[in-house]
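Known limitations

Files may contain more than one protein. Parsers should not assume a single record per file. Below, a two-record file is shown to illustrate correct handling: read the sequence, read the token line, then continue until end of file.
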Amino acid sequence: MLDLAIIDALFCIPKDVRTTQLSDCKRFSEDLTPQLNGGGMVGAVIAPCLCRQCQNQWNCADRKTQEVTETVRRNPNQLRGLGSYDALRIGDSLRWIDEGVTTGTLAGAYAQADYCVSGLDSRRMYPLYGLCAKLRAPIVMDFNTRECWQHHRPQVEVIAADFPDLKIVLATPPRTEAGSILRLLQRFPHAAFLLNPKDLQADAALCEYMELQGCDRVMFRAHPLSWESAAETAMGMPLGEEAKRAYVGGNAAKLFGFAALANSLQNAG
């Protein structure tokens, strides 16, 4: 049986979904190490919480970023973090993301498309993309629903065209139409996708693309599956050894700066 080193390339900090205001928000202080190891993961990329009902979701990017960095510091060998951006506090946001990436406490930036009411391609978002391109750090864009993906996909194409050197990582919702993923992969060489193994396994065209030409463009994400279930599904993926290793861990190790793990995976390959 193939021994796989699996990295969950997007794990959002869990919070009570009933949270509606900042006073109800409890700081996440859990050590994820036991869950990671028990779930078959060797690492994870930590993103801010998804408190969609919270009235302060617009203006707590600094708090979210701090929570991510604190989580990563509890296990820096297995975790990497993504910083939040506040489009109404551009200067402050650029400062803490720049500082985090430069010092190694952050691996990139994170944008929830659901909350970008002015659009991912609005002029207030462009300073973030410019900074990430300058730092050679990825920007992860998360789409909660297929409707959200369909609405924002043309904006993603505009951003990819305007920032040809920007590493754009797209976290599409479950059961996203494979054709829309393949078109972006074929058109924009710096675009990559986060897909859970169940969705990838179900689409022969995506698996074929990975085998033949896109081995380094798709990464493992467990959501909405549990770590245990996602790891088990990944073991049965209809991919060759090279493509499977790249998908479950190799690509994420290189992109998000798991240096030691990237070296070991390269040697194993």
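...continuing to the second record:
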Amino acid sequence: MKAHPLLDGLGLALVGAGLTVLTTALVVVPQRIAQRPAQRGVLALYLDPAGQLRLWNRLVRAQEVAELLAASKDHPQQGQAVLRLIPDAAVPWGVVRQAAAALETSGAPLELQLP
């Protein structure tokens, strides 16, 4: 039985298209899952053992967080932003309390998510 080159090419094209869709999904889906809290108005701030805050893997100061919150008030249709403080497991409780106290002055609700 002789294979048809046209069917072989069509099969390879379908496999290539399927792999492209799968690879794209493997990249995009985790990013969308990670962005889901931000779409609901939650700013997730990660606290490292040195007391530094990270937002989207970038170092930020408490003053910058206040500026972000002020900018979010310009878009009332999104609702009020919520701060979520997520300390690393190695962060001492005193550092967590200091960071929480600094963030509470922003006026936004503050959630604490323990590791």
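Parsers that stop after the first record will miss the second one. For reference, the second record is described as follows. The chain has a mean pLDDT of 84.
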